[in-house]
Structure formats: structure tokens, C-alpha cells
Design a protein that fits this description.
Elements (H helix, E strand, L loop, with lengths): L2 H31 L6 H9 L4 H8 L4 E3 L1 H7 L11 E4 L4 E5 L9 H17 L2 H17 L4 H13 L4 H12 L5 H7 L6 H60 L2 H48 L9
Parallel strand pairs: 1-3
Antiparallel strand pairs: 2-3
Length: 314
């Protein structure tokens, strides 16, 4: 048989095999969806994420469950995600679980989680050729374009916990958490989102709830350090002045010299003024401690809201 005939036959076999696989996947999808009634909350997440019909199908075939307590913890191991999402994708389209976040300050976590897990399902379905192409784009951006240190730290955490799935995680993280990507990646993600930037905006909004508090706490700590230094210096000066005034008092009284008395009184006034300023600084310091600690408590509350571990068993 001529080589060109062999090549044509081989090509037809590959096409036919690919067609069988495509039909097989389509049948599986049909089976997963034929009696599935999309919950209103899940449909709303898909709408919020501007998912395309293809992306909605990928989400829905996994029958997403939005839950908390033991239902979520039993399906998603604590720490399974290292980024600021709370959910998991069970391989081979066996389910997507999304943690129910109720704190209004964290609006958007569920949306980003749904999109993140959907992209895991999408990555699984890429052909070898598609995956190689997408992997190259993701790695190129990671090596030459990524500047967000938080995301770099997140990927470094995955390198330790899931070294074999780094690019898979990049595929979900970049698609949902980076506002601007290279054109080739933006074009790739268009098959899943009509407005990917809206998903990234959700990330920025709730991430800002953390970073704004962290920045303010850091600024407060720096200010408290300055106030404490000034208070300590003032108190040392007051102690020295008080000792000096006590030593001078009897001599001034005995001298009866008007100039000596006036000079002593000026020292007393300086002592009194510094004492008043120091009390003001102490009051300012104490008030700042209260507001700083309140912010730290808020940040801890937000962290707890994004942690499944405290709710396991509920």
C-alpha cells in the first residue's frame, strides 16, 4: 500500500476515533443533565460569572452543591485549595462543591469558586494538543508576565502540595484572579466567559477586604511604635525634670530671689505642659490600639469565614 494511502487511512481513523470520543462525552453529558434541575443559586452564579453555554454545561454536568458544615467538609479536604476560593472539583465530572459564604463583605467568593472549579473541569477535557498549547501560554505568562506576589505565593504553595497539578491550577487561577492577561490567553478564555474581567473583579473586591485591613493594621502598628517612642522619651524627661524640681524647690524658697523664683516657675510650667502633652499622646495611643485591634479582629473573622475547618462536623 502506498504511503500516501496509509497516511489518509490513518487520518480517517484518528478523525473517526475522535468523533467516537466526542459522541461518548456528549452522551455522558446528556446523561448527567437529562434529569438535572439547575438550582436557582447555581444558575445565579453562572449568570454572575458570565459563563458561556459551553462553560455552563461544564458546571452543570458536575451538579454543583453550595453548602457548609459537614456536607462541604466531607467532600472537600481542608486546604485542598491554596488560593482565596473555597471549593473543590471531584475528578471525572463527579461533582463540584462550593462553600456557602454568608458574610456580605466576602461577596464574590462563591462566584469565583464556581468559575475556578469549572475551569478544572474544562482543563480535564482538553485534548493533548490543546493542553500542550494552553500549558505553554500559561507557563509563558507565569515566567514573564505575572507580577502579583499573592498569586506567585499561591502557586508556590501548590508546588509543594500538588507539584503534578501546577499548570492545571494556573489554568483556574489566572482565568479567575488576574484582571489582564496576554491576548492569546484572553482569546482562549473567551470560550468560557463573555466577560472574564467581571470574575476577576469579584476577586479584587473581596481580596481588598483583606488587604485594606492588613495595610491599615500595618500602618497603625508603625504609628503606635512612633507614639510609644515619644511617650517613653517624654516620661524619661518628666522623671528627670521632676527630680530636678524637687531638688531645687527648697533652695528657691529659701533664696527669696525674684529671678530665681521666676526661673523655677518657668521650669514648673514646662514640666506641666510636657505632662499634658504626654497624657494626650497616651490617650491617642490607647485609642489607636482599640481601633487597630478591632480591624485585626475583623480580618480574623473574614479568615474564619473562608476556612472550612471551624465548621466541620456541623
Amino acid at each position: 500500500m502506498k504511503k500516501w494511502v496509509q497516511a489518509v487511512l490513518l487520518g480517517l481513523l484518528v478523525v473517526a476515533y475522535g468523533g467516537v470520543l466526542f459522541k461518548h462525552q456528549a452522551l455522558l453529558d446528556w446523561w448527567h443533565l437529562h434529569d438535572y434541575a439547575t438550582p436557582v443559586a447555581v444558575a445565579q452564579l453562572a449568570a454572575d460569572d458570565t459563563l458561556t453555554p459551553k462553560a455552563k454545561r461544564l458546571l452543570y454536568v458536575n451538579h454543583p452543591v453550595i453548602s457548609g458544615g459537614s456536607t462541604f467538609a466531607n467532600h472537600c479536604p481542608a486546604g485542598s485549595e491554596k488560593t482565596v476560593v473555597l471549593g473543590c472539583y471531584i475528578g471525572n465530572d463527579a461533582g463540584i462543591y462550593i462553600y456557602a459564604v454568608t458574610d456580605p463583605r466576602l461577596e464574590g467568593v462563591e462566584q469565583v469558586t464556581a468559575a475556578h472549579e469549572m475551569l478544572h473541569a474544562a482543563y480535564r477535557r482538553l485534548s493533548s494538543a490543546e493542553r500542550n498549547k494552553v500549558d505553554a501560554l500559561l507557563m509563558d505568562y507565569y515566567n514573564h508576565g505575572l507580577t502579583d506576589q499573592r498569586i506567585k505565593d499561591t502557586i508556590n504553595a501548590y508546588k509543594i502540595s500538588e507539584p503534578k497539578d501546577i499548570v492545571n491550577e494556573m489554568h483556574s487561577i489566572f482565568g479567575t484572579e488576574v484582571a489582564q492577561l496576554p491576548r492569546a490567553l484572553e482569546q482562549y478564555y473567551q470560550q468560557y466567559f463573555t466577560s472574564r474581567q467581571k470574575v476577576a473583579a469579584y476577586t479584587a473586591a473581596y481580596q481588598g477586604e483583606f488587604t485594606s485591613r492588613q495595610s491599615q493594621v500595618a500602618a497603625d502598628d508603625a504609628q503606635l511604635k512612633l507614639l510609644k517612642t515619644q511617650i517613653d522619651a517624654n516620661e524619661a524627661t518628666l522623671m528627670s525634670q521632676k527630680t530636678g524640681l524637687q531638688a531645687e524647690r527648697q533652695a528657691v524658697q529659701d533664696s527669696g530671689n525674684a529671678a530665681t523664683v521666676a526661673d523655677y516657675n518657668r521650669k514648673v510650667d514646662a514640666y506641666t505642659n510636657l505632662q499634658a502633652k504626654t497624657r494626650e499622646l497616651i490617650a491617642q495611643h490607647n485609642a489607636l490600639v482599640v481601633s487597630r485591634n478591632a480591624l485585626a479582629i475583623e480580618e480574623n473573622e473574614l479568615q474564619q469565614e473562608l476556612s472550612a475547618s471551624p465548621v466541620t462536623g456541623q
